[in-house]
Structures are given as structure tokens and as C-alpha cells.
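Structure representation.

___
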Amino acid sequence: MKMKLLQFSLLLTAIILVGCSDDSSASTEDKDPIIFADNGWDSNRFYNELAGIIIENGYGYETDQISGSTPALFTGIAENEVDVHMEVWTQNVGDTYTEGIENGDFNKLSLNFDDNHQGLYVPSYVIEGDPERGIEPMAPDLEYITDLPEYWEIFQDPEDNSKGRIIGSISGWEVDEILHDGFLHYGLDEYYNYFRPGSEAALNVSLETAYENGEPWIGYNYEPNWVMGKFDMIPIMEEDENGVLESIGAQNIDIIASSGLMERAPEVTDFLSNVETSSEIANNALIYIQEEEATEYEAAVHFLKENEDLWTQWVPEDVVESIKEAIN
């Protein structure tokens, strides 16, 4: 994920040159392709595919995605090398976002969704038990992060039986630094090891395996995410609602665009300004990807077919008809 800016610029230039030299450019009236930021998680890619289908078939632009670290992608947007970010976790990126808006480095188009949460979770059976599965409550009084020292033995680290294990965020994600600072702030390092999984897939597999086996698990996750949509989870909150982890709680997930896109494709930015979804929509898409072994593109097509009453409000009638023809 951590890409040097020079490498990022060279890769992006290559993508643009390929797109412009493709024979299909004639069908899009020599319009430059619209480049989406891929921050590395599935919901981001789902939204990229969803917007891409509408833009390609409704507005005649080619689209592409480019991955990179958060700083590299925001630099790309400020320099008009990346056009759109469909899922900006505004509090995670903090000053990078607020200062970028104030300085005119990019533009907020829409609030994609705000019914989200991220932080530490446990399966509900850890606190409440699950009579149908014969699981007794393991930590019935666990409610706040400050309760965790009492229960470290429940979450024992398989590689260090003197401490528990908290599954943290992925190294390189903005939230990881915030979460780890909170871990230290509450003195959890005395009782737990903070374990960073190597990837989002590893994080989710860890939770899925524990859940299916009815085993104790505590770790980072966020909504929307397919595991959060599929499994019954309980967040472990701070007792003080203005605590050190406040910045990674529920927050606005915005859609932003480069100033260059605002100028060269105002009809596209008008469409993106109308997009508004929810964590539930994203969760359902991610569950579809997981259970049907589908791609993000296939999940986007499925969404368009199943949610016509929603997305048809985002675009003019002629674009609606073009999209329907393309996906049917």
C-alpha cells in the first residue's frame, strides 16, 4: 500500500497513456478517462465499480482505478492525477481532508453515508452467550474498553499465554495509529499484545474462524464490511464519549473530486453529487461478494438491478435508460 509518490506518478501516467491510446477512445469522443482512488478495501472498490458503470455507460467516459497509500492518493487528487475518491473516511484522515477542502485541493461532492462505526468489537456471544449453540457468556460484564484488563485471560494470545491478544488494524491504515495510541493510553499493553494482521482478508478470516467455532475474539473492524453484516457483533466503546478514540467512531464518509474533474466533466460531478447510500447497502454488497464469490463489478451490477428505485434518482432519465440497457 505504501507507494512512493514518484512511483505513483509514473504508474498513473502509464495508465492514462494506455487509456488514451486504446482504440476504444474514439467511442468516447477522445475524453480523458476518469481515474478512481482505490484505498485497498472492498467497499471502496464496490463504489468505484458502481460509479464506473454509470459513468461509462451513461456519460461516455472510460474509467480506471489506481491503488496507493492515503497520502499518495490525496496528493494525486490535489494534482489532478486522480479524479474521484468514493469513500473518504473524513475523521481518519483529519487535517489532510479539512485543509484540502479549505485550500481548494479537492471538492466535496456528496455525503456517501454516515451510519457507520469502527473500533474494537467482540462477537455478541462473548457477552450474551448463545443458547442455540450452547455457548455460555464469557465476559458478561464487558462493556467499555476500561473493562478489558479484567478479561485478558478470555482473549489469551496463542503465542504468549501471559497476555491476551487484541487484533488491531492493518499496518499503514490511518486508523491503525489512532487505535494503537488508544491501546497505549488505556494501559492495555500491560495485559494484551496488539497484533496487526497482514491484510484485511487476514483480519476477516481471523474473525470468521473464531465466530464459526464459538471462540472468544476481540479486535478491530468497521462497517461497512461483509463480516460485520454477516455476524452479530458488539462494539466495545470508551466510557467517555469524548475519549481518545472519538475520531474513529461514526463519521462522514464523503465523495470528493479533483478540481480538474469539476471543470472537464461537470455532468459527472453532478451525478456524483447526488449519490447517497448507507452502511447497510455496502454491507449487503460485500456479503454478496463473499457468498456468491462475485467480483466488485458483479456486485455493482447486482445492486443496480435490485435498487432501481434508489440509483435512478441520481441521474437524468436518458442516463437511466442507457444503464438499464447496459446491465440487462
Remarks:
- The longest helix spans residues 42-59.
